[in-house]
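Example (one chain per record):
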Amino acid sequence: KKRFGEQTRVTATLFFLVTRILASGVRLMIAATGLAVLVDIPTEWMIILFTLITILYTSFGGIKAVIWTDMVQAFVFIGGGIVALSFLVHLMPDGWSSIFQIAQEHNKFEIFRFEPTAGKGFFSDPNLLWLAIINGFITTFAALGVDQDLTQRMLTCSTAKESRRSVILSGFASFPITITFMLIGTALFAYFKLNPGHDLPSMIVNGKAVIAYDKIFPYFIREVVPSGFKGFLAVGLIAAAMSSLDSTMAALSSSAVVDIYRPLFRPDRDEKHYLNMSRIFVIVFGIFLALTAIMLKDSRGMLWLCFKIGSITYGSLLGIFLVAALSKRGNNLFNLIGMISAAMTTSTLLICIEKGCINLSWSWLILIGASMTIVIALFGNPIDKKREA
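Predicted structure:
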């Protein structure tokens, strides 16, 4: 606001709201789909149930409720992963040896890819190491700098030092968690290779039935895991669903009230009024998240869908952030042109990539969007000094 004024601020907020609703809607859909497969009920009903419960404790408990419930959910989620992995190892004839042998035979331990796969070039294979590093760095930089869902966690710390410490610790903590769930996927692959008689969940794609790989884990819990462990793992799936919702609802509500509602519609009301409005926005955004999850429930490649959606607007948000932080140029007109043009360009490119019209990896989209936004915004003359004050 101090750097460019209300127009750029509101536009950036709208970009964040749309991106977070879509991306978090996908996360809700993933978690709800898993539990729906486990208990064999329609995914839509599971999405609605999760959303209602999360709306209740988020709207009345606020950020404090989000922090404490997320902490408990994290322990349950991680504990569920450890239990699942241990049980899978127990099922294999020779434990880890069987898993590693089958995984190596099917090239499941390829961690670094330095050359593109057959039929793809250096600009079209998203799994290339150097491209993954570039994309990971830019995406993380954008998330920690412009995503309210993540920055609110740092803002809840009492000092800047504690905020920096939390970011560093979360980075180290995410590594073993990621490894654990990657090993679960590898162990599941090995288990079903040794036990091919299962009727694995499937979906219809282009008129043909294909295995729904995103539903394999909950299918395994339902069909193979004994009752005692099954309940614990079900709670882990519930924790995953809740944690994907509560912090997002809080961030969306906070951004809507602080950046849009308060300055544009009701600038002179008391704090109690804004608190009540934040609760209303929690309900509104909860409905939007649920509707998004329901609309995307039949999507393929659920995991990557989150990143693809985020790449459309993250580039625009990061570009404006860098222009504000590293230059003295830019104004509302050129900022808006840059952000909107970049978002439209990356959206078009993503559609073309998904339809196979162009041979380009989606990992480039955030870099293209950020570069395009920066170049256009820098053409804008510096704004009036009075506005900066």
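Caption: The radius of gyration is 22 Å.
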